[in-house]
Amino acid sequence: MANTFTPPEAPSCLRFSRGPAACRETAAPRRASPYSPLLFRQVCLLAALAGMLACRFPGHGLLACALLALLTLSFADYRKIALFAAFFCFGFVFAFARMPAFPAAPAVPEWVRTAVTPEVPSGGGETDGPFETGLPLAGIVAENDALAGNRSRLLLENVRTPGQEAPLPGKLVLTWQNPPPDIAGAGPGQRLAATVRIREIRGFANPGVWETESYWRDRGAFFRAWSRDDGTRNGKTPPYVLEGEASALWRLRGALQEATLAALAGKNGNARDISQAGAVIPALLFGDRSYLAPETLDLVARSTLAHSLALSGMHLGFAAGIGYAAAYFLSFLFPSLFLRLPRQKAGLLCALPLCLCYLWIGGAPPSLLRAALMLLFWGALLWMNRPKVLIDGLLWAVALIVLVSPAALFDIRLQLSAVSVAGIGLAAPLLAALAGRPRGRAPGSAGSRLGSGLRRLVSVVLGMAAVSVAAQAAVLPLVLDAFPGTGLWFPLNLVWLPVLGMWVMPLAFAGLFMTALGLPAAASLLFSLAQGPCAGLLSLLGAMDAAGILVSPVALRPAFPAAAGYWLLLLLLPAVAPARAFSRRALLLLCLGLGLAAGPSLYPMLAGRRDSVQLTLIDVGQGQSVAVSWRSEGARGRLLLDGGGFASPFFDTGRQVVSPVLTDNKAPRLDWIVNSHPDTDHLQGLLFPMDAFMLGRVASGQNLGQDMGQDPESAAKPTLAVRRRDAILRRRGITPEVWQAGDVITLAPDLSLQVLHPAPDGQALSSNDSALVLRLVWRGKPLALICGDLERKGINALLQRKSPLEADVLVLPHHGSAGSFAPQLYDDVAPRLALAACGYANAWNFPARKVRDALAVRAIPLATTAANGQIAVTWDETLAMQTRFARE
Q: What is the SS3 assignment for 591?
């Protein structure tokens, strides 16, 4: 289809000419539409989208509107300017009426509130409260997604509990680990009843970072629950009842999926025992990634190939390509057919049924639905012999999507899909050049016929590579913002995607067809052939990882103005390439694009000249992570103390939370990484920054990897996080420093960290009680005391040393647990503000009620990441303290 697109042209007023006279000829002062590739109705659609963007992000929307007007409007045409403004206002009003700025949670019934956030009696401990009892719920299955690591994520609606008339507000997201077969295959319309632990959906509230809370609220889901069947509870499956039947199409799809898995497993195999290469096939055909291990997805993600395993418009394009290939072969069998029907339209007729079938087989996820809608628009425009179908079809499809669901505009999946297609449109001239016949040979000559098949094959491969490069270039700002890693191994896409589209997908479709015909032997053979390149790819990635070269360096996450400047420069590229001279507006837009692209990252260095120190308690859920940044006497730097973390193999706190916070319009550089102690909720989130950032030095306390309070045999077995840390440090050639009480670490002139604990006397303490305690001092003023996970023994040892402890801010020991309750510590520190790092509705009720009460008696305000999200405390050059909360 790419060959039917009309190549985009440069804006007339931006075309470079041979001199001022030529510029005056091509850019009449009263020209109605200087941006010729876009029709005015398309400009108006973009203006409406900018207005919708402004409803949630006013600065972003206004900037997009201004740039669009500069690119496409003649300021002398007041009528078009008025229409442009009217569409912008319409988009804003439409979004305001249909979608709140940020969806708020509805009123929660009392029975839900007590189950989600139980109250703990005054003086109670952190284990008080009905957290483990669960709640009997029943709801209707709306969606069922198969996730990596044998998980099913079900979206339930109309959720109720026995004895209560009011339903659960909104929808419930239920994630089931190792689900029974009927749960894994549950379809829309079935009723599921189970006893689960319910929680309100709360994301990690860190400014400038994408989080799940708004995503699920946009979809009407406000609560989530977890369940699992892994044999840990006496081998019993959690109690549940699944009633009703899914639709006939869903059941037919399930039967086809089971037959496919049986063909992959062979006669004597089990579907759960298929190889990781075989697990790629159900991921590509059905969107079922439950057979893929988290380690496999991690390898694929670090190689920048993760998008190739997530069903998207690219895969639907592969299906359409198979349809067009079928039309090409039909031209040899029935050449007279194309005297009545052009080959492009015949290809469309062959592609549409295959794409619709793939949409059904893939479970119709939003990404495939949107791609199919775009394809339908393109097909309709192509059938009507309309030119420039790519941009027109894209805009009409996006307009329809956001009319039905305005929140889809803020869905990263739609953004990636739409921007990548727009990038492909910019690459249309290159695609046309690759597809053209070599000059100098007549169409029917022997030289033309000789090797024509090979030339066509090379043309297709190069065209797919060009499409991939264009799409990746267009979505680069979105990828840098949403996904950590700069794509060092992006060239693998140029090899893997043609293999995927021309070998793996066609053979997988052929195997699926044989499965549907009831020919398992033929299907198994075809699936085996399709797996070959997948196995080779995974082996290559495994070897690269073992050699330590499969790294994914982190880049600065661009601010929206920088992304807008980048896209502006891309749009101007067709005009700049043949340049000799250019108009004033072209010069203005080039300078504006360069300024926007570079300005946000340069501004902090040029404008922030005043000395200051900032302590940021990052919201990492149930864990702790403290970032310290400073500018003092001309020296600048950053330190990361702990990174939070979870034991789950499906979520990397360092990659998905800590790294985006640290790289928000900032270079991925740290002067120090410090680990207070090696517990998972402090160490695991450090591993990704430790591996991917530009790094100065690494430090830890005495306890570098074993619990000193354990018996020697248990203590000699380091945790997985500790082993990963040691491997990273060995690969990078970094020897960690060991800090102990009495050390003073100079960070900058007049800025230091005083190490107050653990003592160098070798006293046997547990991992928590031997955690580092650090006191941040600037210009002689103690700013903060950070206590790690100290408990009673560690706190007593700290107090007995009689070290000065006073500070403006106290980061409470052990997340404010009852086991770390220390009134004397609160008195000795006498803070102006106490902070606790803890997760919302955590299972231990941190911070404990008696800790809260003791602080309240002393009139010490308490802020927690659970209630306030990220907490940033800043001291300016006058040592005045200011505090900002992500949640007010």
A: helix
